[in-house]
Amino acid sequence: MRMARLVERLIGLVPVLLGVSVIVFLMITLTPGDPVQIMLGDSRSSPEQEAALRHDMGLDRPLHERFVLFIGNAARGEFGLSFFHRRPVIEVIGERLPATIELTLAALVLSLVIAIPLGVLAAVRKNSWLDRLATVSSLFGVSMPGFWFGILLILLFSVKLGWFPVAGRIGYASEVPAITGMLLPDALLAGRFDSFWQALRHIALPAVTLALPMAAVLMRVTRSSMIEVLRSDYVLFAEAKGLSRARVIGRHALKNALIPTVTVAALETGSLLGGNMIVETVFGWPGLGRLVVEAIFSRNYPLVQAAVLLYAVTYVMLNFLADLLYTKLNPRVRL
After folding, report:
1. Cα(51)–Cα(36) distance, rounded to whole angstroms?
2. Mean pLDDT of the chain
3. What phi, psi does 40 have (nearest 5°)?
4. SS3 state of residue 88
5. Contact 146, 210 (CB under 8 A)
6. Hey, is 32 helix, strand or coil?
7. pLDDT tens digits, residue range 204-249?
8. Which of 1, 6, 239, 263 has its CA at a distance of 20 to 30 angstroms from the CA of residue 143?
9. What is the sign of the dihedral through the CA atoms of 84, 88, 93 and 98?
10. What distance in Å separates the CA atoms of residue 335 and residue 319, rounded to the nearest whole number?
11. Which helix (H) or strand (E) holds 304?
12. Which residues contact 14 (CB under 8 A, 6 or more apart)?
């Protein structure tokens, strides 16, 4: 791939991000509700105090001035102060982001571990009971609302059986030195296997809740792709040469069959970040998604704008990386 073409694609992402910025700013700013009134609550503040707070927060400026200021600051990576934390927005987001990244990675790995073997087996044993079971399971996973499935998991495995904690990232008595901010790798790096086990029990249910819909999609993609590859001439030729079925699938068919799976997995990772908002709220997971929900209810404009823009940038970059990966796996495709 030529570097000029790569740079051209990157420049092409700028209008997309600018459009997302406009939509995010207008949707958040025009949402009913006054953050000044929410911050003051029931306190008997004077109109002068309200005006001073509104001026301090920049809410007394015209809409276009606020938008230009927002875009200018966003281009420099500055999003101002959180209305309620009274600290830089980037700092507040940085504290919650590792929890969200850890949960997303756990769900991604879990979904791949479930989807790829099941999709390959369903394709190899097409029209068998295993294929039908996998197809029905994938339809169930795609159709089921994540928050409903999460609540069911809490009721069964936390409340009824007591196998997993209801909420949080780790037990109160467990401590993990902050290295990456993600508790599972931090616990392993520190040799705290008891804390690792605690963190693993806490992340299990939210990770399963996030992973199931993605695993259902990836399983269907893997199955369809593998069925198509198994019909290819080079696979039939390999079988005609007397190679074992397992060798044909493992060495010749699997790599090509996984090309669409890898591409869809990269795109679905962006959806995982969006789904985090609901799952983190259901499980009390202290990540970025839950922070955004809290910020929306409190009209914390700078924090919501920065977080949603971060989601958008991540999603756009994942799409871009998926395109790059696809061209790498399939040289016939060009950007």
Report:
1. 9
2. 83
3. -75, -25
4. strand
5. yes
6. coil
7. 999 999 998 889 999 999 999 888 888 888 888 887 887 787 888 8
8. 263
9. negative
10. 12
11. helix 301-329
12. none
